[in-house]
């Protein structure tokens, strides 16, 4: 595992010390199926006349399944982080790195537990196999060398994309579902440290990358960004059907073509795109 400065590791560990356990902090009774979980502007069909014409109960259920989609995406990513980072806990690892990794593993496990608890509290059905990770992104995250640039590029994208979604979600203020807002807040506080750590790792490796290596990483960056954003912002067809919409494939295609959704996704991804552009791994995002 590439070195990260001792001062940074100590600061990150210090800031992680005051841990808040999501299971004890959040009132899980708020996650019942009789209220909207997401404000309408965050639902993938928002802005379409067909969405406005749907019964209120269907729109409400869709908001719940769309946030379940976000949580299942989170469970996938957290599972990969836990598997790959825990394997780095060798006795020979520098103490500061070892300590920080333990903090991050504790926080990632907490995120996974809160996602599982919210889904369980809702009582909503999620059939086995209804959600699947994108194949290439999943393969890269599982098999890329932890000492290499590709792995840390994948980590940066996989942490930064959901983080920017959570930040946009919190902009909707006190009117939104309190439990969802609290989950997003806890998540982004922890992820700020995780992103800082991953960026420092990637910075150190990129400093030694040649032009050809960066060109290959640029191809990977575009693919990873597209796949992770795709599963986060556009639920699988099954979820539209579970919300009460016949022909889930057709409704997902409507979401994919929805101009407002595309604008929303582009705005959410812009900070990540600027970050990657700063490393020369992505073209500059549109202003």
Task: Describe the model.
By secondary structure, the chain is mostly helical. It is 69% helix and 0% strand. The protein has one domain: Orthogonal Bundle (Ribonucleotide Reductase, subunit A). The protein has twelve helices and no strands. α7 runs antiparallel to α8. It is globular. It starts with 5 loop residues before the first helix and ends in a 9-residue tail after the last helix.
Ordered list of secondary-structure elements with their pairings:
Elements: H1 6-16, H2 22-25, H3 49-52, H4 56-86, H5 95-122, H6 135-143, H7 149-170, H8 178-206, H9 211-233, H10 237-242, H11 248-257, H12 259-278
Characteristics of this structure?
mainly alpha; Ribonucleotide Reductase, subunit A; 69% helix; 0% strand
Over all CA atoms, what is the radius of gyration?
Answer: 19 Å
CATH topology heading = Ribonucleotide Reductase, subunit A
Average pLDDT value? 95
Helix content: 55-70%
Q: In sequence order, what are the helices and strands, one letter per element?
A: HHHHHHHHHHHH
Q: Sheet with the most strands?
A: none
Helix/sheet category: mainly alpha
Superfamily at the CATH H level?
Ribonucleotide Reductase, subunit A
- Give the low-pLDDT segments: none
The CATH architecture can be given as Orthogonal Bundle
Q: According to CATH, what is the class?
A: Mainly Alpha
Compact overview of the structure:
By secondary structure, this protein is mainly α.
């Amino acid at each position: 595992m590439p070195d990260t400065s001792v001062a940074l590791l100590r600061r990150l560990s210090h800031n992680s010390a005051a841990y808040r356990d999501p299971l004890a902090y959040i009132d899980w009774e708020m996650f019942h199926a009789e209220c909207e979980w997401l404000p309408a502007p965050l639902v993938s069909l928002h802005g379409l006349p067909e969405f406005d014409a749907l019964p209120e109960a269907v729109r409400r259920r869709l908001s719940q399944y769309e946030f379940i989609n976000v949580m299942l995406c989170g469970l996938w990513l957290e599972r990969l982080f836990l598997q790959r980072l825990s394997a780095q806990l060798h006795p020979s690892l520098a103490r500061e790195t070892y300590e920080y990794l333990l903090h991050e593993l504790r926080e990632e496990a907490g995120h996974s537990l809160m996602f599982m608890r919210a889904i369980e509290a809702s009582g909503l059905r999620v059939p086995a196999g209804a959600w699947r990770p994108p194949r290439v992104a999943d393969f890269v995250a599982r098999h890329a060398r932890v000492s290499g640039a590709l792995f840390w590029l994948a980590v940066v994208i996989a942490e930064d994309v959901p983080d920017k979604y959570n930040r946009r979600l919190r902009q909707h203020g006190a009117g939104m579902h309190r439990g969802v807002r609290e989950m997003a807040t806890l998540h982004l506080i922890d992820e700020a440290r995780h992103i800082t750590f991953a960026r420092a790792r990637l910075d150190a490796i990129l400093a030694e990358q040649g032009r050809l290596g960066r060109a290959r990483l640029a191809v990977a960056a575009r693919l990873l960004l597209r796949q992770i954003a795709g599963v986060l912002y556009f639920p699988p067809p099954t979820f539209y059907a579970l919300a009460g919409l016949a022909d889930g494939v057709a409704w997902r295609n409507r979401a994919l073509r929805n101009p407002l959704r595309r604008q929303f996704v582009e705005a959410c991804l812009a900070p990540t795109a600027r970050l990657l552009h700063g490393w020369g791994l992505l073209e500059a995002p549109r202003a």
